[in-house]
Structure formats: structure tokens, C-alpha cells
Amino acid sequence: MLRALTSALRLPRPWRPLQTRSCSSDGAAGDPEIQVRALAGPDQGITEILMNRPSARNALGNVLVSELLEALARLREDQQVRVLLFRSGVKGVFCAGADLKEREQMSEAEVGIFVQRLRGLMNEIASSAVMGLIETTRGLLPGAGGTQRLPRCLGVALAKELIFTGRRLSGAQAQALGLVNHTVPQNEEGNAAYHRARALAQEILPQAPIAVRLGKVAIDRGMDVDIASGMAIEGICYAQNIPTQDRLEGMAAFREKRPPRFVGK
């Protein structure tokens, strides 16, 4: 079992850095719906994915999901990326959820495939920030992991209440329930949440990249298993971090009373 876990938790192989690029979801002229931008200067290591589909309030359609998955696959292999930010280019909205107008035109088989791909996207992002699971108000069932992730965050009883009622939550309510970490008052530009997220990214940026990555693996994988298996996963992640240059650098920096210079190796 430990050998299998070790194989599954190996870090991805190095890959050439992803260049700044944009993807058009319909191939037509005009503003692209997905843009990937690597920040420079003191923010080097932070990469942003911009969603810009104002006509559909950034709703997740087939092509948009495909391009997001493609961007995430490339960024996952780019060791220069330390923090990834999702942001909206549409003022007043982040993402309206699945594109129900598009889904209405799909066959039952196509819906099943789309939901499966959407679930894969949610797994890649691994985000539990939910402002409302309103699918039951549209005759649908949360199909992107909502029935599994929400009970883990809130407990079964409260998760059922939110799903069964389709209740929408304010930012303050979501924070009180533990669904989001931070709430901020909106500014005139409508990008207050982005600035808070970027400030948080700047806090993460100086930390040891491999240790952060392995910590994320240990948490994500450990949440899906019993405590004994979770401890085994943590031990495997810890063991992978021991031979890194960054661990030795962190210890040396502590001993010499100076800031560490992590390189991700």
C-alpha cells in the first residue's frame, strides 16, 4: 500500500514554462474568454487565470471548461508557478456556474459527459468556496462534487438544508459557515476580492514551494480517507520533502537568522 501511495504522490516532472497566452472559446474575433498571465517583478511566481465571458456571466460551458482544464494541465507541470489566482473580467460576478442554456440543448448522454468533465475541473481547482447550490431550484442535482464536498465542510445536516432549499448565501453568511476564508467590502472598481486574493498570494509566495505543494497533497488526499491512511499519506509527503534543497536552506536560514531563499528544489 505504501509503495502504491508513494508512486501516486510523486511530484510532477519539470516541464517548460507556460508562456503568457490567451484562448478564444469560439474562435471568433474579439476578447478571449480565458487568459493566462504570469506576473513579474515582486509578484513573479504568481499566475492568474482570467475568466472573461460577460455575455454569459462567466458561466461554464463546454469550451470554457475544456480550456480551463487545458490551462490547469499546463500550469500543473510548470514549476515556476507557485500560486495560481482565478479572477473575473466581468464586473459584479465571478462565475454564474454551469451554462444551463447550453446544457438545455444537450442530449442526456452529452449532459452526463459534461457533468463528469465539470466535476474533473472542480477537482483540479479543489475549491470549497460555494455561495449557493441552487440546482434543485432548476430541477437539477449538484453534479460537480457539491453533494460530496459540502457535507465534508459543513456536516451532513446543514449541507442537506442548503442543497434542499437552494438557498443563496451572502459573503458574510458563507464566511460564518466556513465556506469562504475572507470577505471584503466591495470597491468602486468591483475588484476588492481580487486584491484580497492577490495579497494572500503574496503571503504564500515566499514560502518553500515543494513544502506548500506537498502540504496541499497531504490535505487533499488525506481528507478522502480514514485517519490512519491520512497519517500514512502525511508521512510519505514529509519523507519526500526531507531531501530537498529548500528544507536545508530553511534550516540554514533559521540558524543564520536571515530570510530563506527557496528555489523549489
UniProtKB/TrEMBL annotation:
Lineage: Eukaryota, Metazoa, Chordata, Craniata, Vertebrata
Protein family per UniProt: Belongs to the enoyl-CoA hydratase/isomerase family.
Entry superkingdom: Eukaryota
Any one GO biological process: fatty acid beta-oxidation
Alphabetic keyword roster: Lyase
Protein name, entry field: 3-hydroxyisobutyryl-CoA hydrolase
Domain Enoyl-CoA hydratase/isomerase, chain residue ranges per copy: 48-110
Recorded catalytic activity of this chain's protein: 3-hydroxy-2-methylpropanoyl-CoA + H2O = 3-hydroxy-2-methylpropanoate + CoA + H(+)
Source species of the chain: Panthera leo
Pfam families: ECH_1, ECH_2
